[in-house]
Amino acid sequence: MRISLLQAISLLRTGQVIAVPTETVYGLAACLDCPEAIERIFELKKRPRSNPLIIHVADWLEIHHYATHYPPDFEKLALTYWPGPLTCILPVDARVPSLARAGLLTAGFRVPNLALTRQLIKAAGPLLMPSANLSGRPSATRPEHVEEDFGADFPVLDGGVCAKGLESTILLYQKSKWVIVRLGSLPAEKFTPILGYQPLFVQKEQGDQPLCPGQLFRHYAPRARLILGDLTALVDSPFILGFRERDYPVSKRVIALGSLARPEEVAENLYQSLRQLDLEGASVAWVDMDFPREGLWQTIAERLIRAGEV
Ligand code: TXA
Ligand code: MG
User: Fold this and answer.
1) Beta-carbon contacts of residue 98 (< 8 Å; ≥ 6 apart)
2) If we measure between CA atoms, which residue out of 127, 131, 108 comes closest to residue 119?
3) E-strand spans in 205-260?
4) 20 and 166 housed in the same domain
5) Other CB atoms closer than 10 Å to residue 290's CB: what's the count?
6) Distance from the CA of 122 to the CA of which of 13, 45, 224, 258 falls in 20 to 30 A?
7) Residue 141, ligand 1, Cβ within 6 A
8) Among all ligands shown, which has an atom nearest to the Cα of 88?
9) Per-residue burial over 118-143, b = 16 or more CB atoms within 10 Å of its CB, e = otherwise
10) In this structure, are 142 and 248 located in the same domain?
11) Are 13 and 125 found together in one domain?
12) Domain range for residue 186?
């Protein structure tokens, strides 16, 4: 059910959960000061309680209400990339509800780059927003994806198609450097001019503790089993996820991820394409993994690999 901005404010302020657009993916939103709504997010998504939520603010300076201190270069990152698809993990105290941070002493913060969403946050207060999909499923990048997972009556603030299509990049400061704990819409290379180094993608600490709890769980998966391959090993499968400029066997149903020349387009289409497989009843699909690995392609590859895990 599509709702207006005023309805969205009123539902959030009366402690309800709604879906909200951002430039990355749709989020399932609850006000930070509504404990029952926060509980409801975990129930609705069937999300493990050990997986914390990101706090979305309209202006990055609001973070000082929650953070206890700031790692080096945080201000530079904030001034350069916010609003935008960056999440920074910062030390916080009990002003952030424990359930929202899964009991950790840190929380993720982000300023979404969509004016509609920032207007909503200004009126309703900071919002906790995980991606608006059932846990494990491909994220939602269109209002209809939210409705597929939560039903036609679920309230959605319509922001159209998400421009980026992949979640924010998550940075954490560790051992005197920022590291990427979740790849996302902002490629690692983009940070070099600001930080003076390219942050590494680090998934686990010594002792196998995940730095980003969400990385532990199955993710982004359609019901179809994905076979990831290159062109020399095209497995016989009725469905193919591939690229517009390539020729695939004509007998196959090819779902185009986009153009090899435009990773931004592939990113925007990725979750839509995975969901399309389900809508068409695919039980297995072959995915063309013959593409570069730098920049945004690194995130695209990681998402496809995660989606293919069983
Ligand atoms: O683009 C995005 O980030 C979207 C939109 C809605 O803003 N949100 C999103 O939220 O992707 P979610 O909940 O689907 O993913 C958040 C990830 C999870 O993997 C979670 O484990 C990690 O952020 N996370 C949250 N707080 C954390 C913390 N304090 N330390 C480490 N990882 C954290
Ligand atoms: Mg998610």
Assistant:
1) none
2) 127
3) 225-229, 239-243, 253-258
4) yes
5) 14
6) 45
7) no
8) 1
9) bebbeebbbbbbbbbbebebbbbbbb
10) no
11) yes
12) 2-195
* Structure-token pair, residue 30: 């609850």
pLDDT digits (tens, 9 = 90+) for 61-101: 999 999 999 999 999 999 999 999 999 999 999 999 999 99
> Does residue 247 fall inside a structural domain?
yes
Nearest CA to ligand 1 atom 29: 107
pLDDT tops 80 at residue 180: yes
Residue 104 confidence (pLDDT) above 80: yes
Residue 206 lies in a domain: no
Report yes or no: 241 and 257 within 8 Å, Cβ to Cβ: yes
Q: How far is the CA of 139 from the centre of ligand 2 (A)?
A: 6
pTM: 0.97
Question: Of the bound ligands, which one is closest to the alpha carbon of residue 220?
Answer: 2
Query: In CATH, what number is assigned to the domain containing residue 41?
Result: 3.90.870.10
The answer as to whether 19 is a domain residue is yes
**Which residues are 177's β-sheet partners?**
174
